[in-house]
C-alpha cells in the first residue's frame, strides 16, 4: 500500500516537471520569435512537423489583424459579417435571365415586342427564331447552349438621359382627329413614353428600373436606367419578307433562305381584309404623315361627325408611327404604331402593324420590289 502511494507521488512529480519544461520551451520560442520580429529577420525553419507548425502559425498571424474590435465595441459589422466586395462584370457572358435574353435578342433583330422581362408567347417566338438562325435546336427554351450563344457583349442595362431639346419637344396629344391635324407634330407626350420607345421597353419596366424617379420633373441631368439596345443593324440583305397571319409574326430572310430578322406584328381584325399570297413593296417612307379617312374608322364617333378627310402630321404618335412601307395593294402597308405594347396582341384595320422601333429596323432593310409572302 505504501509502495503504491510512493509510485503515485513520483508520477505527480514527473508530470509537474514536464509542465515546467514545456513552459520554458514555450517562453524560449516566444522570445526567439520576438527577437526575429524586432530585427526583421526572415528565417526558414528546417523540414519536419515542428517546422511546418511554426510556418502555419506565422501565416495565421499575418492573415489576422492584431486588433479586431467586435461589433459590440464599435457598432460596425465584424469581418466575418461584412458584405463581399463588389465584383466587376466581364463581357462577353451568357444571358442570365429572360430580361437579358429579350435585350440581346432585340440587339440582333429578333424582337419580342416591348421588353418587359416576362416570358410570354412573343418572347418564346423570338427565341425560336434566333435558335433557327443560330443552328440550335428550336425549343423556345432558354437552355445553357442558347444562353451561351446569345452572349451579351456589353451591359444589358445602362443609364439614359434626355436632352433639353428632347424635353422641349414633348407635346400633349389632342383627343380629336381635327385637333391632331392642327398639331405641328404628333410627338411623344411625356418623358416616360420617350425613354420607353427609344429603348424598346414597356413603360412599366422603365418605372420598375427607376422606382425613385419622378417622371413629372425630368431634367437633362436626370439619368435613368433602361435596356441598352441601341441602333439595330441587321447583317445581311433582305430577299423576302414572310408574314404569318396565324402566328402574328413578320420574318426577314436573305437570298439563301436564312432567317435574319423577326418581329411580332398585328394583322387585320376582319378576315376578309387580310391579304394573302405574294405582295411587293412599292414605297418606303420614314416619318410619314397620315391621311385620315373617316370611312376607315366607322366605330369612331369623332370620325362620323367630322365627315371629311384630314392630313395628320408625322411623329411617333401618328396612326402609322414613324415608318410606312407601302404594298402593291391599295391602302395596305407595313407601318409603326403609337401603341407598341399592343402589337401582336390586338388587331388592325387592315395593315400590318409593328412597334415603332421594329418598323425603323425594317425600314433599313426594305426596298422597292421586295417580295412579301403572306401566309395563313
Describe this structure in words.
The strands form 4 sheets. This protein has an 8-stranded mixed beta sheet with strand order 7-6-5-14-8-11-12-13, with helices on both faces. A two-stranded antiparallel ribbon has the order 1-2. The protein is globular. Mean pLDDT is 81; it is low at 1-83. 34% of the residues lie in helices and 16% in strands. Among the domains are: 89-156, Muramoyl-pentapeptide Carboxypeptidase, domain 1 (Orthogonal Bundle), CATH 1.10.101; 240-287 and 322-375, Beta Barrel (L,D-transpeptidase catalytic domain-like), CATH 2.40.440.10. Helix 4 (98-107) packs across helix 5 (121-133) and helix 9 (191-198) crosses helix 10. The termini are far apart. With 376 residues, it is α+β, with helices and mostly antiparallel strands.
Second rung of CATH, namely the architecture of the domain at 240-287 and 322-375: Beta Barrel
Spatial extent as radius of gyration: 36 Å
Strands of the widest sheet, in order across it, are: 7-6-5-14-8-11-12-13
Mean pLDDT: 81
List the helices and strands and how they pair.
Layout: H1 2-39, H2 49-63, H3 71-74, E1 93-94, H4 98-107, H5 121-133, H6 144-149, E2 151-152, E3 157-160, H7 164-168, H8 177-181, H9 191-198, H10 203-209, E4 224-227, E5 240-244, E6 249-253, E7 259-264, E8 277-286, E9 290-292, H11 301-306, E10 310-312, E11 323-327, E12 333-335, E13 352-353, H12 356-365, E14 371-375
Parallel strand pairs: 5-14, 12-13
Antiparallel strand pairs: 1-2, 3-4, 5-6, 6-7, 8-11, 8-14, 9-10, 11-12
Amino acid at each position: 500500500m505504501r509502495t503504491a502511494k510512493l509510485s503515485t507521488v513520483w508520477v505527480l512529480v514527473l508530470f509537474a516537471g514536464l509542465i515546467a519544461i514545456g513552459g520554458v520551451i514555450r517562453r524560449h520560442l516566444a522570445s526567439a520569435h520576438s527577437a526575429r520580429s524586432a530585427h526583421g529577420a526572415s528565417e526558414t525553419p528546417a523540414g519536419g512537423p515542428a517546422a511546418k507548425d511554426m510556418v502555419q502559425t506565422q501565416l495565421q498571424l499575418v492573415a489576422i489583424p492584431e486588433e479586431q474590435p467586435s461589433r459590440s465595441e464599435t457598432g460596425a459589422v465584424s469581418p466575418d459579417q461584412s458584405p463581399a466586395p463588389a465584383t466587376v462584370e466581364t463581357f462577353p457572358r451568357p444571358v442570365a435571365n429572360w430580361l437579358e435574353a429579350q435585350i440581346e435578342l432585340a440587339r440582333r433583330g429578333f424582337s419580342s415586342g416591348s421588353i418587359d422581362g416576362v416570358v410570354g408567347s412573343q418572347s418564346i417566338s423570338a427565341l425560336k427564331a434566333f435558335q433557327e438562325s443560330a443552328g440550335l435546336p428550336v425549343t423556345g427554351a432558354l437552355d445553357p447552349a442558347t444562353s451561351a450563344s446569345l452572349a451579351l457583349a456589353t451591359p444589358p442595362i445602362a443609364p439614359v438621359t434626355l436632352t433639353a431639346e428632347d424635353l422641349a419637344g414633348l407635346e400633349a396629344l389632342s383627343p380629336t382627329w381635327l385637333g391632331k391635324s392642327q398639331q405641328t407634330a404628333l410627338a411623344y407626350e411625356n418623358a416616360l413614353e420617350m425613354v420607353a420607345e427609344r429603348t424598346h421597353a414597356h413603360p412599366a419596366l422603365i418605372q420598375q428600373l427607376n422606382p425613385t424617379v419622378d417622371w413629372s420633373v425630368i431634367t437633362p441631368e436626370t439619368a435613368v436606367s433602361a435596356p441598352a439596345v441601341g441602333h439595330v443593324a441587321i447583317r445581311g440583305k433582305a430577299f423576302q419578307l414572310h408574314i404569318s397571319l396565324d402566328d402574328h409574326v413578320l420574318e426577314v430572310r436573305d437570298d439563301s433562305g436564312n432567317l435574319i430578322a423577326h418581329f411580332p406584328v398585328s394583322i387585320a381584325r376582319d378576315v376578309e381584309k387580310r391579304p394573302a399570297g405574294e405582295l411587293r413593296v412599292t414605297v418606303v417612307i420614314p416619318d410619314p404623315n397620315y391621311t385620315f379617312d373617316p370611312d376607315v374608322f366607322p366605330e369612331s364617333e369623332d370620325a362620323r361627325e367630322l365627315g371629311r378627310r384630314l392630313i395628320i402630321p408625322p411623329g411617333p404618335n401618328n396612326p402609322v408611327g414613324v415608318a410606312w412601307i407601302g404594298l402593291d395593294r391599295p391602302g395596305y402597308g407595313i407601318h409603326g404604331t403609337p401603341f407598341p405594347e399592343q402589337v401582336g396582341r390586338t388587331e388592325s384595320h387592315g395593315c400590318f402593324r409593328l412597334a415603332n422601333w421594329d418598323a425603323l429596323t425594317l425600314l433599313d432593310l426594305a426596298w422597292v420590289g421586295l417580295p412579301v409572302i403572306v401566309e395563313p
